[in-house]
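Good morning,

Attaching, inline, the backbone tokens for the sequence recovery test we're adding to the shared suite. The designed sequence is right after.
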């Protein structure tokens, strides 16, 4: 079973930095886009940043210039470096990956996989 697991959340003061990591595991034939989303209490989940297998990136306007998404294809890991954090960045951050799973019979299927989330709290 394929999965992604996030790490790196925590409590930080405004203006500080954190780096989130998300590692994919399982019987994976390939990984297409990977990304980070976040959901604050009482709000809908929103896109933070995405990155394609080729390295093309996309950011929400609210994080442009402060957050950087990157990936290590060999490690099947995506990162989110968050600088100049603001209290409004406080959310649960979720990793998302579009993966091609290879099963024991040799066939494959495309899956969209979400992590369990990691909490980022920015104090003012």
């Amino acid at each position: 079973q394929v999965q992604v697991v996030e790490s790196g959340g925590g409590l930080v003061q405004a203006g500080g930095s954190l780096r989130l990591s998300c590692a994919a595991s399982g019987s994976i034939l390939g990984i297409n886009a990977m990304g980070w989303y976040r959901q604050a209490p009482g709000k809908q989940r929103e896109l933070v940043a995405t990155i394609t297998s080729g390295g093309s990136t996309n950011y929400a306007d609210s994080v442009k210039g402060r957050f950087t998404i990157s990936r290590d294809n060999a490690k099947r890991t995506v990162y989110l470096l968050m600088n100049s954090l603001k209290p409004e960045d406080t959310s649960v951050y979720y990793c998302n990956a579009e993966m091609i799973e290879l099963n024991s019979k040799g066939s494959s299927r495309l899956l969209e996989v979400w992590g369990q989330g990691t909490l980022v709290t920015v104090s003012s």
